[in-house]
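Reading group handout, session on sequence-to-structure problems. Before we discuss, look at one worked example. The prompt was deliberately terse, the way you'd type it at a terminal:

> structure Metalloprotease

The input record follows.
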Amino acid sequence: MRIQVRRTGGFAGIERHAEVDTSGRPDAAEWHALAEQAAAAGRGTPPVGVPDGFSYQITIDGDTVYASDPRLTTEQRKLISRVLKEGC
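And the output record:
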């Protein structure tokens, strides 16, 4: 499974992008479950955010959903943080 996160917005407007490929990872099942939960709560179109908040584009194996602060689910927040931290 390939998971990509693109973060835009924020006070400085700096965009970040990271990607994780779970193939061959010992924790792949955990990533898959988290990704499915995060995607299930996502929207098909970018939601209206708040001033200086972040907006996220989450792409899982080619399927994209959108989310924004402050309305992230716990699973979305965890997935986004992990991908941006561990991804390249």
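Points for discussion. First: The mean pLDDT is 94. Second: The longest strand covers residues 2-9.
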